[in-house]
Design brief:
Blueprint lengths: L21 E6 L6 E6 L4 E6 L6 H13 L6 E5 L5 H18 L3 E4 L1 H8 L5 E8 L2 E8 L2 E2 L4 E4 H8 L4 E3 L19 H10 L29
Parallel strand pairs: 1-4, 4-5, 6-10
Antiparallel strand pairs: 1-2, 2-3, 6-7, 7-8, 7-9
Amino acid sequence: MGDGNQRPPGRNGQARPASHVMILAVDTSGVVAVVALATTAGDLHFGATGANPRAHAEELAPLVRQALARGTPQRVVAGRGPGSFTGLRVGLVFAQVFGWARGLPVSGVSSLDVVARQYALVDGWVVLDARRREVYLGRYRSGRPDAAPRVVTRDEARAAIGTETAVGDVALLTDTDRRAVGTTRLTPASLAQCAAATRGRGSLQPDYLRRPDITWSPAKQGAPPP
């Protein structure tokens, strides 16, 4: 039987290549929301970041609405962190509900992978601010993650990295100011490139890496929320 998706032959007699898939990519692992609409060929049709820190819930939907004005996605990709419990949930839940409502496949991508691609990292480490004087740390070899990401203290990160190359919030590792925060922001272009590279197979399991900042007290264990 023939392939039902086969394209009619072109002028040279060869089958025309299938059209590239349009991907909607969202990430809320960092300080601001990031949205990109691009094809698997790398053509960026829309890219934007939120204007206000920690305003993922307020700004993600309007950014996606702007993206949809530039094209119709056929696949959805969401950043799975690492990141804060609250921030990650916004993007992951939005992506899954959006995909379900439109009947689109949804997959995930590591936010550390996005940073690695953003800095064209081949061998070395990605460092992102995790607050509490800790950082998210990921090791890369030949452009690919070499180990599961983890959250460590700044001292532990310095010891692990040694003299190897590191990108991202590296300045935090030597900053003595307890109030210092990371400044790395994911770019829509890098998010789109990583989303295309997943080929729809990236896990949606969030990389929380640690418990949420706010939890139920022992006195309220077992009591359902009001």
